[in-house]
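User: what does the whole thing look like in 3D?
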Amino acid sequence: MDFGSISPVLLLASLMVAATPLLLAATGELIVERSGVLNLGVEGMMITGAICGFATAVNTGSPLTGMAAAAGGGAALSLLFALLTQFALANQVASGLSLTLFGLGLSALMGQGYQGIKPPPFPEINIPLLSDLPFVGDILFSQDLMVYMGLLICGAVWVMLKYTRAGLILRAVGENHDAAHALGYNVVLIRVAAIMFGGACAGLGGAYISLIRVPQWTEGMTAGIGWIALALVVFASWKPGRVLLGAYLFGGVTVIQLNLQAAGVAIPVEYLAMSPYLITILVLVIMSADRSRAPGSLGRPFHASS
Amino acid sequence: MLKLEKRPQPSQVWIYLTPLIAVLATMLAGSALFAFLGKDPAVAIRTIFWDPLFSEFAFYYRPQLLVKGAPLVLIAIGLSLGFRAGIWNIGAEGQYIIGALTGAGVGLAFYPMEAWFVFPLMVIAGALGGWAWAMIPGLLKVKFGTNEILVSLMLVYVAEQLLASMSLGLMKNPEGMGFPGSRNLQHYESAHNAELFTGTGMHWGVVVAFLAVITAYVLLNRHILGYHIRLTGQAPRAARFAGVVPARMILFCLGTAGALAGLAGMFEVAGPAGQVSIDFNVGYGFTAIIVAFLGRLHPVGILLAGALMALTYIGGEIAQSQLGLPAAAIQLFQGMLLFFLLAIDVMTNYRLAWQRREVA
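Assistant: Here's the predicted 3D structure for the full assembly of 666 residues, as structure tokens:
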């Protein structure tokens, strides 16, 4: 065992990388849930985004086009969920599950022939001057574009929910869809838009894994990160600021766990690999004491006649 | 303008019609998918749905229907109880793995002793293992109100890691020349879940699956507990007035589902799979969710849906070897089925009606 081999700078820098897919997916799901819809298909949308982004990046040679394709792919898949839950009024839990099963199959099919290929490298951004700072420069200011993008989206969502009229309407739809409908807001349309935003974010998160974090394509490579993102929204009590905190917490757990594996700690690898999932459960238990924060209409179907 | 209008009563016709239309729609969409992949859709559909039952080599494939269908039906019956009561156990895959581990663990512990009681003990251990694994989300939900969907799912990943650890460590075959995986239980007579009649595919898991269907049918239609389960799902408040204790209901539904999934895992590992290995589980726990919904959460429906889903597994394998259809295409095919089912299900509770556009 050799703890000396773990460098704190590298640890913190890779923490931000590990947290980004979670941050993206959880921020998207936060918007979906604040609009009163529970989409359990995050895992399916992430893995679809991962392969859409990967295939596009490999074929066009441009990782940024890949990212755009990933967002598009995630949003397109989420549109299926929107059709099921908003127009066919299907059970949201079952629809979300079917989205995940469908997404896993779809991505495996699309990924045929992309195994073992290296995607084009993602440009790293070195912010001049700031990235030369000792310690913090390497951690905060020389990451790739998507790390900042994740932070930006999370911040924008926070501002949108807290300070804008659009945010107020979104929250009204989520808290009480009948009241929002009575006020003349188009509940279904707002929810469809929220679901698609969630899908696009999940797609970006997935592509971040396949294009930057790993970077290669393997079947089922998201390995439950979509589900952890769902748990993160509960952990965050549906607040963007806490999503950020939670994402870095889970990113930290993942990175420390990987570093311990590499350092050869006496705990078997399998038990270390379990830890993110076990900690998720632990966090869910702690947070479930406070249920008051959940949006009032979460998971309830809306039909204008009732 | 065409609008949805809520029916006063769920349509009895559509309850039965929905799964049939969903299967047909999936076949159509599947044909388009297969055509897109460059395979003749008619041949692909025939290979998947017809050849396993009626082709020249059907004598080989027909027993597989029982082998693949039994775990699906067994797990889906357990899940359906919870789904009816609004309790979402989606971690059956994990309970299946743990049941296989505990069941095989007991068997391996007795190796090489030959005795009549080894197999029954394994069955009990398998059921208990799955039950205990499902009790984790159950107790957490009852005690702390934790979301059972996420906890049960997280435990799937934990169980997969545990499986890897066991097949590489504790349960590894000491005479396996260093290969991962346990001793093959098929070569250990007292622990082997062998075919009851040679060449039929009928093993103890199939028997238990049929028993589970009958028991669930009686429970739901003739027993107060089954009535309470249905009541909890349709009117939770009314259920409480009727004296249903929600905590007990949660523990019963999750526990039963876990025990049945554990049994399915145990029968699989002691029979068709033979050994504990890293990837012995093939996602029956997730496919069973589709089976449960396709069977309309009704025991007899689940039996039929399980048979159909088993058919797609077998036909999928044939299509894979004969037509070069990728395995993922079959996975996608199964996922589509659930999509169409959920979409068409709207017709059970709503009907389409022409309405003149009016001011809202």
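In plain terms: The longest strand of chain B covers residues 2-6. Chain B has a mean pLDDT of 85.
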